[in-house]
Amino acid sequence: MPAPEPAGPPTAPADPADPTAAPAESAADPTADPTDPADPTDPLVTAETAAPPDHDDPLARERAHLAASRSALRDMRAEAEALDIRDVTANWVNAEVLQRQIDDRIAALADLAHTPLFFGRLDYLHAPAADQAEGTEGEQFYIGRRHVHDAEGEPMVIDWRAPVSQPFYRASRKEPMDVGLRRRFGYTGGGLTAYEDEHLTDPAEAETSSKLLQSEIERPRVGPMRDIVATIQPEQDEIVRSGIGGTVCVQGAPGTGKTAVGLHRVAFLLYAHRERLARTGTLVVGPNRSFLQYIEQVLPALGELHVKQATVDDLVAHVEVRGTDSPLAARIKGDARMAEVVRRAVRSGITMPSEGVVVVRGSRRWRVPSYELQEIAQELAERDIRYGAAAEALPQRIAHAVLVRMEAAGEAPDDRVQDAVARSQPVKAAAKAIWPPADPAKTVLRLLSDADFLAECAEGLLTPEEQAAIRWEKPARGVKSARWSAADAVLVDEAADQVHRTPSLGHVVLDEAQDLSPMQYRAVGRRCTTGSATVLGDIAQGTTPWATGSWQEALAHLGKPDGRIEELTRGFRVPREVIAYASRLLPRIAPRLAPATSVRESAGDLVVRAVGEGELTDAVLAACRASLRREGSIGLIAADARIPGLRQALEAAGLACLEPGEETSEESRLTLVPASLAKGLEYDYVVVDEPAAVVAGEPDARTGLRRLYVALTRAVSGLTVVHASPLPEELAG
Ligand SMILES: Nc1ncnc2c1ncn2[C@@H]1O[C@H](COP(=O)(O)OP(=O)(O)OP(=O)(O)O)[C@@H](O)[C@H]1O
Description:
Blueprint: E1 6-7, E2 44-46, H1 58-82, H2 92-108, E3 118-124, E4 140-144, E5 148-149, E6 155-159, H3 166-170, E7 179-188, E8 191-199, E9 208-209, H4 211-218, H5 234-240, E10 248-252, H6 258-272, H7 274-280, E11 282-285, H8 289-295, H9 298-301, E12 308-310, H10 312-315, H11 327-334, H12 337-347, E13 357-361, E14 364-368, H13 370-382, H14 387-408, H15 415-423, H16 425-434, H17 440-449, H18 451-457, H19 464-470, H20 486-499, E15 507-510, H21 518-525, E16 532-537, H22 551-558, E17 564-568, E18 570-571, H23 576-582, H24 586-589, E19 597-598, E20 605-610, H25 616-628, E21 634-638, H26 643-652, E22 670-674, E23 683-689, H27 691-696, H28 701-712, E24 715-723, H29 729-732
Parallel strand pairs: 4-6, 10-16, 10-17, 11-12, 11-15, 15-16, 18-19, 20-24, 21-22, 21-23, 23-24
Antiparallel strand pairs: 1-9, 2-8, 3-4, 3-7, 5-6, 7-8, 13-14
The structure holds adenosine-5'-triphosphate.
Adenosine-5'-triphosphate is lined by residues 216-217, 228, 231-233, 236, 252, 254-260, 538, 572-573, 680, 682, 713.
């Protein structure tokens, strides 16, 4: 895997009038503090260290380009706002569609004060080839979140997704990709305050790590998840830019950027295949509402407003879920064998006819004998078409058999006659008797309520014990009153797809995929049968009884057995000491996975505090107070069962707290997080309450330790573990 791109020495172009001129040399000190203006060898040029702001000064010139670009963006927006579509639209439907497109464009062209218009610059050695799209004229490109051009149409900022921007993420000293200079910009409060250069073809320049990347990673995490477009790393970029045709599956330790990469991949695909995906649609699937709230602003910040976000439960919401399953029942219902059980149940009504059908037309009677009806039904049953499609085809097939007889008798019936025969009462009745309508929810209801029916459909697939385990204790009377579980809803979705094909989207991102059952993978997979998917997950964080053991298998259930499996191992969230502590659990919970490394420079604060039995809550409150004295967000993570007690204690102590997914702000920084909802979230400081209770909250020890692993890997800056009961031995060791 490629190393992080190093930063070069500060730039002071030899020719001040030419920003692309060769730089003056200076030695860089990789250990220098970026904020220390006294350090003359600092690779990061900041507003303080730069020369006074005149136009010979590179920083001043970059700011001038920023001001000009913002003004150009304002003009582009004004132009979009002034568009008058009355003359060009033929009808109101067209007008509506066009106006919506214009409104989207106006929204996308907003100049957001705290979102820098560009974050990088590439100076190409030669003009990129003419077939490389935008801005082929110049050889210097500013890279930003969106394309901005001036009044003449000349590009001022290039979209980060354009091919010409790619070297910003991928070029290296080994492979400079024709780039002489890569410049990264630093912003403070919306103002351009620093830049950092790498001269990729200069052998004399020392390799250093990027301080701007470091400060981006280290920044406090208050607020929702942000995009990483300015600092996408080469190994991440490869996934982000992988083609729309292929499915990619990313295994990655906590904080390696899986979610970020998945969201940026959607943005990239929408740029590269806008029309196709506008037609087919894109979807991001996440584990729960809190998580979706946490990530919901990333795509809009990248200008993509129309990506649907849902949980798997949302996708399969055909019935109201009010019941729960035992872990055993849920595991069996989620097993891939259930697909065949459901298929048999849906098709159980198909009945081979024992009588023929007689159609009366005028004075004549036409008879199709039973053996011929059987042949027709048999042929439909053997074809790989949906149950509902076959049900629609059957009357036409029978009518066709009637027409063949009419023709043989010298008549010349046309299509209208065939339609009329297909719609005639005897044909409709015969078709319905052979191929009765199937209602997905009713079919599954019968399967789970009627022991004989289940036995018939599950024969050779489920053992009698397994059948007994999934059957409802009390048979339900109707679809509305049944106490459907989440796993039942997935079965109904499977049945619905057996009846009518589920429409496919163009691309689906599936996050925290390790927790899905095979049947849930199928439910997601049928929503991208003709599209592709990005599957993101971490085997070590699987906390369902049916959690994924192998990505190969998961991809097969998803219907994408040829999906490419990639691994991310560089962690951007969890500091070194904290990840090392959490990784003590790995040999037990996912023996084949290597621990993540941490890109963060600070080792992180790790405190493990043992307290007496009656002191636990006070010690936890004290840890929260101590964390609140630091900058950034705080997450108090505890076993679900301990949440109500802790909430009361926090309230009594005057410590206001948020629910997971609620946006943290400078005023409200403490969130009380049930361990079951911690997945995917992060906080600057995390306090983990009583690990033994987190472990005990799960049905088995491995799942419990995995849940704990998730809780221990949410911290960006510091982790405090407070316990009264002994720690799990893997941690204590
Ligand atoms: N290239 C990057 N530059 C800056 N920050 C990054 C980069 N990649 C990831 N991050 C940050 O690291 C943090 C973790 O990223 P993310 O949540 O995507 O990781 P994950 O692999 O999905 O974690 P988990 O397994 O815990 O769900 C986020 O704050 C994200 O913005």
